[in-house]
Amino acid sequence: MKPLWEATRDLHHACEEHLVGAAMASGKPPMPWYADWLYAIHRIHHKIDPTLPAALRRTARLEEDITATGLVSTPVPAACAYAESLDTADKIAGAAYVLTGAHLMGGEIMRRRLVGYPTTHLEWDDRKVALEELKVYRVRSELATEARECFAALLRIMDEIQERTDGRD
Fold this sequence. Notes:
Blueprint lengths: L3 H4 L1 H9 L1 H8 L4 H18 L10 H11 L7 H9 L3 H25 L13 H12 L5 H22 L4
């Protein structure tokens, strides 16, 4: 069985290369895209956070960031549908692996690039503890299908964000 990171590499790269993902990685996404992204990720975290160790929970921090954007966002249907689909422990663990990894690893770089954007959800009370908690998911190669489903959902979310605002402020 492939390591989890290898089994999801293609979709991970697809997310980074998506127009919305690339705009975020540049540190200069249109604020409507960023606000919609925060709102979509919040929807998923709202579902998974109760099952996560306290060190990995992001819901409250995402709420702070959403408020700080000053924008009112509406639900992203793909995020709502994906959150509703998280109905087993393995699906939740797959989402936890993808989102926690993104927030901890790429998020550290993103936080430095997103100057002027609210990034509380990318800050950690104890990053070392959070990294240890992430290891619990990283070693579970049997979660490949569930982690791939999360990445695919993130791509659908980015498609909807791009379509709804077309990048205009």
